[in-house]
Amino acid sequence: MTAKQHIALTVNGRRVEAEVEPRLLLADFLRGTLGLTGTHVGCEHGVCGACTILLDGVSARSCLTLAVQADGSSVETVESLGSPEMLSDLQLVFREHHALQCGFCTPGMLMTATDLLRTQPLATDEEIRDGLSGNLCRCTGYENIVRALRAAAARRETTTP
Amino acid sequence: MSEAATRPKHVGSAVRRVEDPRLLAGQGSYVADLFPADALHVAFRRSEHGHARIRGVDAAAAAALPGVIAVVTAAELDGLVRPVRATSRMANYQATATRPLAAGKVRYVGEPVVAVLAESRYIAEDGAELVEIDYDPLPDIADPEAAAQPDAPVLNPETSSNILVDRSFSRGEPEAAMAAAPHRVGGRFRFHRKAPIAMEPRACLATIERGRGALTLHSATQIPGIIRDALADALDLPGHALRVVAPDVGGGFGGKASLYAEEMVVAALARRHGRAIGWVADRMEDILSTSHGFDEIVDAELGFDADGRLLALRADILGDIGAASIYPWTAALEPVQVASFLPGPYRLASYRGHVRAVATSKAPTGPYRGVGRPISTFVMERLVDMAAHRLGLDPVELRRRNLIKAEEFPYKIGSGIIWDRSGFQECLESACATIDYAALRREQEVARAAGRWIGIGVASYAELTGIGSRISAAPGMPINTGTETADISIDSTGAVTAKFGVASHGQGLETTLTQIVADELGARLADIRIVQGDSAAVPHGTGTYASRSAVLAGGAATLSARVVRQKLVAAAAHLLEASEADIEVEEGRVRVAGTDRELTFREVARAVYSEMGRFPRDTRPDLSASETYDPYFGTTASATHIAMVEIDPGTFSVRVLRHVVAEDCGRLINPMIVDGQVHGGVAQGIGAALLEEVIYDERGQIVTANLVDYLVPTAAEIPSLEVAHVESELPATIGGYRGMGEGGTIGAPAAIANAVSDALAPLGIEIAELPVTPERLFRLIQAARTQI
Ligand code: FES
Ligand code: FES
User: Fold this and answer.
1) Transmembrane segments in this chain: where (chain B) (predicted)?
2) What tens digit of pLDDT does each residue of A95-145 get?
């Protein structure tokens, strides 16, 4: 086995240090080593988007990223958004619009949506659908996810000065 | 009956889901989230051959790898776990076994041959790669038509041929009526194989309670009760020492509704090693080994008269069911349903259907959303459109003339299925009104004049849902799927727990069942906890499949809640010194009507259970009930879909511009959830129509074992979806519910196939093969152009 490497990073605002095998996927590091099982693994080949996290603020696939590549970075996962008792605005808007069924794609959708809402105008449904097209959902037919994002984008307009 | 039944408070409203907070916060518990730190991991070495004899296994290198605990072959599992056979009462059926690991030969690429047990998943996978298996290739059995020939090599040694099922249906005078029909249309229709692709790959984890040797299997399954019963036999364990739990499950769509070899291996090894052992599929092995769906060739012909009256239907169906008969549904499930449902929602006196299920060296097929009916609907709705075209009639008008009318129910169709009153005509009219069909046709005229390839497609269908004990959910299957039990109790703190044998995997059953229990009991939503997906919850339950859970579990919930409410009323009447008739129950309180004398559930419960002397010894009540519901016949759900598509003349890709569904699912428990189910079903139907296809080559090698080659629709391919609800007349089920979880997938492929055909009508093209990929469309258009 290759020697373990030391990594130090910030996960959801918390400083984390660990010795990891070079081949360990970031998704497995988050889920297995840190117990942050909210990040899901749906394909392990970069297509489904279930494993989406924010790496230094930008959405990334934790199944295509090695834990050692995140050394020195800041990682945000779904657990950073809100708790069951205190959901974030984005989580609430998903609930209001019934934008999840089985919930397996949801953490990845939420992280992608977080990135989109920060960086994209999302002025039309087409833009929203394009933005979401890297995240697969097999349950919702996307309709209610699009509606949720439409509402979130509109709310963003009214709250930002 | 009870006042709650006439004045529902929660049933019928868009109650927010109970499941959501935990799932949104990343606090769900899917199987892969539950592994204890010291759990061992299994990885499988799977067959790379479609059909081969196993000459030998060399496990030395794998076993020598540090961290590998054991390398296990079929022989080592003999005596630990027995094979399971999917039996049937159907004549002309040949059963095959589900074995934990391949013994002697392999029958499809992806069949598990060797299990490697190791300290981590990484090491287990390393070990699996080091296993050397020596094979002797056997003749290819990949083509279903060749495999059905009498002299074809036989895939399963325990069968005499590859034809596992052979069945015919006949009603009326099919031959004479067809011969006498003034007009006939027909053709060969092909619906290609699909993979369910739940976003959560399959997974299971067995833990052992060492003190009493009890085993708990957490599995990403839709059928914990059936798995429990099957494994109890296979492992020879009593039910109280074997519990199967489906925790949060990331979608199923039928793919998680069968017993799998991996569950047998994981359970047997956990027992042998006395510790937690689990397996999580990666996407590739999930596509290789999770049951596929919908793989049929249908030769069909429809006879009709000059007024468009349908007279006779005949069909020959060849179902490619893959390597074996899946447990418990059997190989009959998918293809026989095609034959059973082919006559559809139409008045049609004569029908002859012949169906064969043939084994080939591909992954076994099993239930996939819609089961058989996406194909039967595709074929029948294509034939109806071809008939309309022949007569120069509008396809909506032809359907209007032939759909069974309100006064004709109950109506027995050619295969023997009986439709109870459902809004066949109403759904057609509602879909047309919702989309403004006349305006859509005008829009199409304009677009056509401008040279655009735009088409409109209509599809109507009916399905049987909430099936009770009269017939099994799969034809000929000897397992009772017709009952569900609800065990409801108010405990000594006044909290309500309702336990069920169903297993939600995205449908939101915790929410809908809470709504029903709250209404029937007079409880607050927040006071109720639903326990489901756990074989230990009730003595018998099978799970969630076949659009049954709202009808069966909802009915059982109603029955049990009514008994508990009656007990609560009796206890409260005693405590409040009032007559039972004067007691009202609402919002978790019992009150003497018209007074302020009231007690909370908690106060009643404490008096009933915990306080001395509140009740005479011989009348001390309990506040619980366990009732079972059997809807016996089940009930008919129906819908009409209308789709509008545009074909890009440059890329030959099809874009769905509009898609409307008008459906009759009886009383809506939660309209928000119903709409969500329709949306998801339609998206899968659009995928089935345009994108999705599991492809094996002639050697039985799969060429689409990842999500780059197997295309699941993304948000960019799905249009905005519109849903209208028709409540024709409530069915006789308790609560008036009909099942609706699968319908979207049943109607959408047919509507899109009709729309694409309509778009290409000027070229005379009829779509007979799905998915209609750009490549297929290109070939069809080229061929049509060279003919012109
Ligand atoms: S698991 Fe990372 S993209 Fe699918
Ligand atoms: S909610 Fe199930 S995959 Fe999206």
Assistant:
1) none
2) 999 999 999 999 999 999 999 999 999 999 999 999 999 999 999 999 999
Question: Minimal Cα–Cα distance from A22 to chain B, Å?
Answer: 12
Q: Is the pLDDT of residue B1 over 50?
A: no
In this predicted complex, what is the ipTM? 0.97
Which helix (DSSP H) or strand (DSSP E) does residue B759 occupy?
Answer: helix B743-759
Residues whose CB is less than 8 angstroms from the CB of residue B76 and which lie 6 or more positions away in sequence, other chains included: none
Chain B CB contacts of A77 under 8 Å are 26
pLDDT of B473 higher than 90: no
The mean per-residue pLDDT over the stretch B336-363 comes to: 97
A100 residue type, one letter: L
Ligand index nearest the alpha carbon of residue B24: 2
DSSP string, B306-367: TT--EEEEEEEEEEEEESSPPTTT-TTHHHHHHHHHTTTTB--SEEEEEEEEEE-SSPPB--
- Longest distance between any two alpha carbons in chain B, whole Å: 94
Sign of the alpha-carbon torsion through B552, B28, B715, B287: negative
In chain B, positions 744-783, which contact chain A (CB-CB < 8 Å)?
744
The percentage of chain B sitting over the pLDDT mark of 90, rounded to a whole number, equals 87
Sign of CA dihedral B57, B63, B68, B71: positive
Give CA–CA dist B692/B726, Å, rounded.
30
| Longest distance between any two alpha carbons in chain A, whole Å | 55
| Residue A44 CA, closest ligand 1 atom number | 1
- Identify the three-state secondary structure at position B390: helix
Q: Is A5 exposed, middle or buried (0-12, 13-18, 19+ CB in 10 A)?
A: middle
Give the domains, in start order, of chain B with CATH numbers. Answer: 3-28+483-629 (3.30.365.10), 34-138+199-251+256-289 (3.90.1170.50), 370-463+634-787 (3.30.365.10)
Is the model's pLDDT at B522 over the cut of 50? Answer: yes
In the three-class reduction of DSSP (H, G, I as helix; E, B as strand; rest coil), residue B639 is classed as: strand
At residue A159, the pLDDT reads 61
Q: What is the DSSP string of B579-624?
A: -GGGEEEETTEEEETTSS-EEEHHHHHIIIIISTTSS-GGG----E
Give residue B200 CA to ligand 2 midpoint distance, Å.
Answer: 9
What distance in Å separates the CA atoms of residue B359 and residue B314, rounded to the nearest whole number?
24
Looking at residue A1, its pLDDT comes to: 55
Q: On the CB side of B746, how many CA atoms lie within 13 Å of its CA?
A: 35
Point out the least confidently predicted range of B295-304, B373-382, B621-630: B621-630
Question: What beta strand segments (E) does B621-766 contain?
Answer: 624-629, 635-647, 654-664, 721-725
Q: Is A49 in the pocket of ligand 1 (CB under 6 A)?
A: yes
| Other beta carbons within 10 Å of B578 | 18
From CA B18, how far away is CA B23, in angstroms rounded?
Answer: 10
pLDDT band at B4 (very low <50, low <70, confident <90, very high): very low
Ligand 2 in reach of B67 Cβ (< 6 A): no
Tokens 């020959």 belong to: B316
Q: Is B226 exposed, middle or buried (0-12, 13-18, 19+ CB in 10 A)?
A: buried
Domains for chain A: give ranges and CATH numbers: 5-80 (3.10.20.30), 89-159 (1.10.150.120)
For B118-141, write each residue's pLDDT tens digit: 999 999 999 999 999 999 999 999
Average per-residue pLDDT in chain B? 94
Give B696's DSSP letter.
B
What distances in angstroms separate CA B69 from CA B53, B100, B515, one per listed residue? 27, 19, 49
CB distance A128 to ligand 2 below 6 Å:
no
> Which amino acid, one-letter code, is at B327?
Y
CA distance B722 to B228: 40
pTM of the model: 0.95
Question: Which residues of B are less than 8 Å from A129 in CB distance?
Answer: 714-716, 718
